[in-house]
Amino acid sequence: MTAFQNDIEAVEALKAEHGASWDRINPEHVARMRAQNRFKTGLEIAQYTADIMRRDMEEYDADSSVYTQSLGVWHGFIGQQKLISIKKHLKTTNKRYLYLSGWMVAALRSEFGPLPDQSMHEKTSVPALIEELYTFLRQADARELDLLFTQLDEARVAGDETAVEFIQSQIDNFETHVVPIIADIDAGFGNPEATYLLAKKMIEAGACALQVENQVSDEKQCGHQDGKVTVPHEDFIAKINAIRYAFLEMGIDNGVIVSRTDSLGAGLTQKLAVSHTPGDLGDQYNSYLDVEEISESDLGNGDVVIKRDGKLLRPKRLASNLFQFRPGTGEDRCVLDSITSLKNGADLLWIETEKPHVEQIAGMVDRIREVIPNAKLVYNNSPSFNWTLSFRQQAYDLLAEQGADVSAYDRDKLMSVDYDGTELAQLADEKIRTFQSEGSARAGIFHHLITLPTYHTAALSTDNLAKGYFGDEGMLTYVRDVQRQEIRQGIATVKHQNMAGSDIGDNHKEYFAGDAALKAGGKDNTMNQFN
């Protein structure tokens, strides 16, 4: 017996206990409403989705072709439409997640207005967006089930038992739109206690996976900007511990921590690491500093020095009081960061790179896996990369290595439309198409995401609409490029009243008031034009 049938029987028994005062309660209507509201709390969602992620991680360990994916979204409606689209076209949400980007929260969800990705936005806006996303995903469940319940009622009235059985099986085997969210907690928004408090709020809202980065909280920069400043490993481990404690306190024992290192592009540190013995973690961190050997007589007022192997070393300190790493040490620091995080409670890695290059990523992962064999990455397929130029240059280099004649191409100008359709451009596009599968097979990428794609799609689609609507085409632009496409592609939002919950409300009114219900979906509802 299904959960749906069990609920009907349970309410029937409860109704019998209350006698005549419950005569107007329909047990099947109660079961329907319960099915439409499967998740009662954010913690239920966090546990459900944590179980999904852990299962997916195990499956990836056994077969790297079953990687996972997500798109970053900045509003509940955008996340909802993404999952509706996935279910419509791919028939299942399996291995598809949502990503919550701190960049987009800063740029689009702050009460201060648009902000750069520097942790200046309100920290409460992050758990608020998680809650909003799951509210919209739960509403997508309610809407899709409501459509099935309506079809079930119509089939019963028509006496079509085959249809009744088929629709009932769809209800019994309904796949929820609720999927895991990997949520960006930036650099923790303060000290470890602040990180812990925010992590609890994010978990309560439904997050099963939190991504934290090793930058200084009050100097945090976007991973694709200059001026990034990292912290010593012990400082970062404290924040990983804070997040784990938050998961454990909230009862999500298998919550996922994604440890991000920005060391590849970060040339600065705020402070020197504490070292007690040669070769310890602090000593390893300090070993990458840009230093000069000095004698005691060379010491100046206020100088900071490190003693290593009997030598006095003076780190290069900037006017900002930040210390500088030696150029060329980024990859080594990324490897050390990653190994250290996995040894201290992180579950997944994120290495922020300056370009999408499988072999560059794989080179670091190979070194990490020498120590942690099942190390896995979350990778940012970033809109900050010029994908076309990068992969055309990679294709150019590959052709040149193979001895092909590349004299017709200017490597520095490969973005030009003049190269569209060439052998090089086709090779580059094929490498872009297979980047995710190749990255997962070769470079240990468990999860591919695009951080802020819907920021760009919203801007592009709005530009196209405004250009035509306010120009000579007028209303034709909307009709041809939006509504006509919605109808022909089966985009559910063409019936926007239904998407917003009007039909669900009508059915609830009928549950509550029977034939006396005043409903919005009658013959005069203009949405009927889209039936």
TrEMBL record:
Which Gene Ontology BP terms does the record give?
carboxylic acid metabolic process
- What is this protein called in UniProt? Isocitrase
Per its UniProt record, what Pfam families does this chain match? ICL
A molecular function (GO) held by this record is: isocitrate lyase activity
Which residues take part in binding Mg(2+)? 184
Q: Which keywords does this Swiss-Prot/TrEMBL entry list? A: Lyase, Magnesium, Metal-binding
Kindly indicate whether the keyword Metal-binding belongs to this entry. yes
Species per Swiss-Prot/TrEMBL record:
Leucobacter luti
Cofactor comment:
Can also use Mn(2+) ion.
The active site annotation covers 222 (proton acceptor)
Cofactors needed by this protein, per the record, are: Mg(2+)
Which reactions are catalysed by this chain? D-threo-isocitrate = glyoxylate + succinate
Among its keywords, does the record have Hydrolase? no
